[in-house]
Amino acid sequence: MDTNVKPKTIFTGDNLPIMRGMNSESVDLIYLDPPFNSNANYAAPIGSEAAGAAFKDTWTLSEIDIAWLDLIEAKQPALNRVIHTAMSNSDKSYLIYMAVRLLEMKRILKSTGSIYLHCDPTMSHYLKLVMDSLFGRQNFQNEIVWSYEKWTNTAKYFQRNHDIVLMYSATDEYIFNKQYGDLTDRQRQLLRAGYNTGSSGGRQIVRIYNRENPNVQRRLPQWISEGRNIYDVPEPKGKALADVWNIGILNGRARERTGYPTQKPLALLHRIIKASSNEGDTVFDPFCGCATTLVAADGLLRNWIGVDISAKAAELVVSRIEQYQGFFEDIIHRDDIPHRTDLGDIPRYNSPENKTQLYGEQAGNCNGCGEHFQIQNFEIDHIIATSVGGTDHIENLQLLCGNCNRIKGNRGQEYLLSRLNAS
């Protein structure tokens, strides 16, 4: 599906309504480094490039959260069970916040795409269960350990020097470009020799890396006379990377440092983007912060879309790309909600055919208070308000009695449920 958002666009605002306005199956790779439920508040230092950027990472369970959980329970029972395993109300509130956004990420990810969720040990175990319930355990590909060195720890536990990156694919037909590290000692030895001997299916074989190598030219006649199977093969690229990545965190003097409190190194994003996308693909970061994902994607000739609650991210992506690329690009900054173009021709939302279908699906009961009414007493309403990305598609429509519709107004269904639960 084509994207309805132009490449090199950064949005300022809540990522949930913005994602609701994006076409289904329109991005190739998603990387997100969301809040971790750390019970801390973060702000960039005054005088730094990122000064003014801040976010709150503390969570309390609200009536709106509980209403969201009711909506999740109706359509995502497995996800609902995971959220109910949370040990505290703070954890539950955080998981609800993440769950409703991950549902949208799943929708906008192409069938050949992958999603990388960056988290620390605070919530990684819960988030893996959430991802299992959404993407399916069969599409879990890796739990990547990003390991790094930092200052000495004097607390009574082993130094905590890693984050977790959970990799899931949309299907089993996902893009993956194998990544390699340095050559091993054995690979260097074979390259010097120019060949590698072995056996396959009971036959002696020779794999030749370079026929011009004197060692190969000297032995080739003998291998031919012995009847060995001879293959010309590419030179080894290095040791295939494992799921533990030793990439240093940014120190205070690093050239790419902006002062953003949770900034990640470009090397980390380069590895992810190279592995799970190709040139021209679209990379999406819904929590783009100081825009590291967008800068990395741009340098690797990928299209990109980013969202952040702070307008500072839009400033940083422009200045950082200019810094690294050496020129200014046409970057689009938006603070509106995109309009989906992938729904085709759909009836007017309050059409009679929609009302008849919804009346049957709801068995004549109001989708708010649950009371039974005749069809003429119902009003068609949006579950997700159009002001926050809801569409006129019938999957986003419901029938409400007049009283429930007046309570809800132009807000989302979660508001109505929270008001009804409180009364």
Describe the model.
By secondary structure, the protein is α/β, with parallel strands linked by helices. Helices cover 33% and strands 21% of the residues. It has 13 helices and 16 strands. The protein has a nine-stranded mixed beta sheet with strand order 11-6-7-5-2-12-13-1-14, sandwiched between helices. The protein has a three-stranded mixed beta sheet with strand order 8-9-10. A two-stranded antiparallel ribbon has the order 3-4. Helix 9 links the parallel strand 12 and strand 13 (303-308). The longest helix has 20 residues, at 89-108. The radius of gyration is 27 Å and the shape is elongated. The two termini are 44 Å apart. Residues 42-46 have low confidence and may be disordered.
Features:
single chain; 423 residues; alpha/beta; 16 strands; 21% strand; elongated
